[in-house]
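Ligand: protoporphyrin IX containing FE. Inputs:
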Amino acid sequence: MKITLKVWRQKSKDAKGEFKTYQHDHVSSDMSFLEMMDVLNTQLIKKGEDPIHFDHDCREGICGMCSMYINGQPHGPLQTTTCQLHMRTFKDGETITVEPWRAQAFPVIKDLVVDRSAFDRIQQAGGYVNVNTGGVPDANVIPISKKIADEAFDAAACIGCGACVAACKNASAMLFVSAKVSQFALLPQGHAERKERVEKMVEQMDTEGFGSCTNTRACEAECPKAISVANIARMNREYFSAMVSSYEVKVGGGE
Amino acid sequence: MKWLIDLFSSTLGRKVLMALTGLFLILFLAVHLAGNLQLLKHDGGRAFNVYAEFMSTNPLIQVISKGNFFFILLHAGVSLGLTIRNRKARGSVGYAVTSGKSSIWSSRNMGILGTVILVFIVIHLKDFWAQMHWGGIETVMYDGKEYRDLSKLVAYWFHVGWYVALYCFCMIAIGFHLWHGFISAFQTLGLNHPKYNPLIHFVGKAFAIVVPALFAWIPLAMYFNI
Ligand code: HEM
Ligand code: SF4
Ligand code: FES
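Predicted complex:
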């Protein structure tokens, strides 16, 4: 296959970026998108040029690093991660535009690499369960129905890739945050800190400068882990009931 | 009190205001339509005039009407604030290529649709509501009692071609606004449940088609003398 790539190149966070066009004549339809980028980068290195920087790690669809906005969709035309996208999805001779995630809360560091530490700070604001260390508890001491366990597990499948933010016209992080809130809200272990958690995580989400949700559901359609917007409705319920009924906790996740 | 301020300054809290005011406006549309449909009676506008007189004089309706004005302004004001925030959230550089595949058109254009509706509401108030309250509107006598002849004013405008076209265009905008908005409001309020979703979706979509269509039917019927 031969393809033309239009890739966003940006030297550093504050540098002005621009698109550069690359002709790529050695593409196999069996390559993953990242392998195709590797081959291109090898050519660039041989020519003495700066290779295209992009995030990747596991290359098996579980780490969430491989952020690329391909032809107007996060992770390209399929509902997978970029590492799981293969060149057979594209046509011979096609021009493919590759951009970084665009969000004020995800600043570009270099080329296609963005800083997603805003997600980490949201998690740190409340996305955990405090436990007392001690002996390992017996299995099944806390009964959980299969359906609830499944639903919590589905929410926990979120890999924090940020495709939901990239896909959303408002750069809203609601799908991510709601998945993280839901995985605990559904389970008895999460109940002790339930109200405080959602208040702090939403506060942090707003502080980071993500947009608000207009329920377009683009996030759900693009999420590689098929996280459902039912989680967003759940977070809305959790948040409102927490805000009107909790003791006033200090919601200052930011500092 | 700080919690209340926190609640309604958060993005989630502001969306609740959008959803609640939106749902109130949906109820208002239904009542308004029931009133308008009386224009289709061939009684010289009597039923409609009696109804309009009641709506513009009954003290309880007056209170609800003030609330309605307030809710429209709140709905538009909050949506403006959120829309500005959402624009900013994309960052200074936007995407070069975007695809509309993963969401429906109306959901991405609520702001534009809302603006069309707002402009329509202003024109509509100027031509009918303001005339009813302060204009030199003609009166008629039914059973020895004086009524303002709003139906005559409506009939005048509904025989002006461009006005009928504008009216129909705005009804289409409302239809699209509600195609997304009705269902969206329930999602915003957290009312998403597999047992009720089919009902919400059915009623939402039916409302978004039937109500604007009936609203638009009235000027069309009067214009073409059906
Ligand atoms: C009869 C008039 C109207 C009705 C029945 C109505 C109804 C609704 C409903 C039900 C929603 C969904 C709320 C949600 O997603 O939770 C909505 C959203 C919205 N409305 Fe309206 N609306 C009306 C007029 C307007 C006007 C005049 C404007 C603006 C100038 C406007 C702008 C918006 C915007 C921008 C949204 C999306 C906001 C968001 O999702 O964050 N609407 N509307
Ligand atoms: S919700 Fe889906 S799209 Fe968003 S961060 Fe998690 S896995 Fe990625
Ligand atoms: S590289 Fe880990 S998910 Fe793609």
